[in-house]
Amino acid sequence: MKRAVALTGAVAAALTLAACGGGGDSGGGSGEPSGPPQAGGVLRYGLSLAPTCSDPAQSATNQTIYVTRQIVDSLVDQDPETGQLKPWLADTWTVSPDARTFTFHLKPGITFSDGTPLTADSVRKNFDSIVALGGAKAPLGASYLAGYAGSTVLDPQTVRVEFSGPNAQFLQATSTPQLGIQSDATVAKSADDRCLGGNVGSGPFTYTEWKQNASATLAKRAGYSWGSAVFASQGEAHLDKIVFTVVPESGVRTGSLASGQLDAISDALPQDVSQIESGGGRVQFTANPGVPFGLQVNVTRGPLRDPAVRAALVPALDRKELVDTVLGPQFKVATSVLASKTPGYVDLSSRVKYDPDAAKKLLDQAGWVPGGDGIRVKDGQRLAASVIFAPVFAGNQAILELTQQQLKAIGFDLRLEPLSVAESNVRQNNKDFDFDYYNSTRADGDILRTTFAVDQRNLNARGPSEPLDGLLSQQLSATDPGARAKLIGDAQAAVLDQGLWIPTIELSQAIGVGKNVAGVKFEASARLQFHDTWLQR
Amino acid sequence: MGRYVIGRVLQAVGVLWAAFTLSFAGLYLLPGDPVDMATNAATGTPVDAAAAAEMRARYGLDQPLWTQYWAALTHAVRGDLGRSISSGQTVTAALGEALPSTLVLAGAGLLLAVIAGAGLALAAAYTRRPWLRGLLTAIPPVGASLPGFWVGLILLQVFSFRLKLVPAFGGTGFAGTVLPAVTVAIPVAAVVAQVLYASLVSTWRQPFVEVAFAKGASRWWVQLRHVLRPAAAPALTVAGLWTGSVLAGVVVTETVFSRPGIGRLAQESVLHEDIPVVQGIVVFAALVFVVVNLLVDLAYPLLDPRVVQANSRKERAHA
Q1: DSSP-derived secondary structure letter, A369
Q2: The complex's ipTM?
Q3: With a CB-CB cutoff of 8 Å, which residues 389-408 of chain A face chain B?
Q4: What angle do CA A37, A32, A519 make, to 5 degrees?
Q5: Which of A89, A314, B34, B311 has the fewest CB atoms within 10 Å, i.e. is most exposed?
Q6: Nearest to B86 by CA among A308, A49, A225
Q7: Any idea what the CATH number is for the domain that residue A254 is in?
Q8: Considering the entire predicted model, what is its pTM?
Q9: Which residues in chain B have their CB less than 8 angstroms from residue A423's CB?
Q10: Tell me: the pLDDT tens digits for A79-97?
Q11: Looking at domain B99-262, which of 3.40.190.150, 1.10.3720.10, 3.40.1280.10, 3.90.190.20 is its CATH number?
């Protein structure tokens, strides 16, 4: 049994490698159906992994969020184009000047799918319940509500949420499915019972069936009329039903899409693109916001203690080669410590660029001289370090192998340590690594604080340092979007100045879509929203 | 005979206990724990220490190893295997949901394997043309070495994506079961064919075969009436091996054919270090092995009466 599991793992790895070999062309592709949206029909969607839980508050993986996002509405919505916050359940909101108090005015007449009204008290009960679920069950929701002091119902349509300290990121967080609003009956359940498919929300779709590890069926909510301002229309969804089926094997997902057994699929791999397009379909993709893929540097280890070494690594990488060789045109090179779709991103491509001569010069000046095998040495210490990574993204291994070659060209010896997710967690928690390779998705610049602040997980193992520490905490008190963006922009430069993150590429989501499907949309966090989706029949 | 059965049942209980204990120890030795997995894996978001400690307490992971082991064992004896850490389902419910699909797949696969494997062995043992025999006996090693995922993908490519005869996933009944059953059956049929063929060949050399021919029986009649029954016994003793082969095939097959069965459940729970579910599956698999071997032992005397005589002689000698 165990051996069989290992075999499947090997198979997956082999397919992944194959996946990484081929580039992909998704620029061509036929366009989506045009004309006015048609109502009705069942969208058959193929997920790549089983959703873990039916509760939006406890959702963490993309495949889980693709399902749970559809059944809840959020207080506000975030425009994926501009990053601006728009009305959804709340039509207006105010933030106190100290960024500790947030007041939301709800639209009137909103009901949950069990018929009960959605009121200010529902919002209070939801936030209270997420704090009670805690960081272990609701890691994202609980981190958004860190410092939660309580909610007060001012009147049935108005709720005031207070924090013990400044928490400017909270406003964007209220647009996420993790802080979506569910009915009183649902939030009164235990954490485990909230996972079993009985969740009641006010969203454009409702659960009709939940089969753990197999499928989830959603039906249109009749009478829905409070859609977000980001939606194409505020009324009911176009689709009658969505059937999510877990189809773990990528070749089977692609074949099913091309042969008309599915209408849309997750994680279309580069080598599947031509088959999808030959069936009349297309691949839609979008870059994830947040911290792009990169090497987080443990500044207490070996040669990485030398700031000149950390500075030399940034121009040593040819990111375009990484994208062109391994990933294909759906992917972008990283140009800062934030991905380009993140609000507050600043383009630092003048610094995050390929310039091997500059890298070598920095190392020469710092006294690292090439040894007999081409790897540099200083005071008897070799310029070498290893990187830990987990197979959470199919391209990781191939990207890092190419990175290894690129770094060798400047005399740096990078060793690869592929780990299971569990092993990687243990090594992270013990800060037992030289480099850690990963990314984080969040459509708010506060992801810089959770990734780099000295009082957070601090995988850099660094000590206090200005101006970075000040910038990361000040952005939490900045209520003016312009002022906050300035602080977040300066923080990106400060992270680079200290050599805490060596950016590589931005993650993208690639969704395979059949020829009869229109209006499949990514929300601001690069997850799917099916309200505007329709089928041409 | 009664004593024999009691002995076998006690042995079975011992095997179940050992499976439970070894899986507990194995999972305990894995790096990290399910709380790390649940809180860190997907999000990369740090969880404050208090929340993680609270969750460890909820699942008893903060208790000493022996306390955890004893609690899990006593609950398991009472039929309570706990709750899945990642999905919140009870383990018995998760197994119960996954089991029917796996039973159908394993049953159909086994049936196909026995028919195909036995047919192949009988044909190879029957023919007197060396080239045909060589060809037929070359098939099982090929079947045994074909990777299941590859067979499954090829079958899907041809019969589902191109010919559109059967659904690629989510199907029930004949159309939904035939391709996965063939995928499971191929390596098992190879084992059945190899063991049965070897046994048939050695039985053909027995003196009673010549006696049967002397009575004027035809070659087919001798093979079916006189050779097959004694030759089947050794093949049946490795039924435990078939079962293992089927269970291993089920893991890969359920992934390729998107079937929500025990194999998929096993794979997903190992990935998430979902200890209660993995333990439930290990104990369940051990139970299947024990029951299959017990049934084979009990069926053996029916095929070969000498076994019972030998046993009763032994019992008499001990008494």
Answers
A1: E
A2: 0.81
A3: 392
A4: 50
A5: B311
A6: A49
A7: 3.40.190.10
A8: 0.85
A9: 31-32
A10: 999 999 999 999 999 999 9
A11: 1.10.3720.10
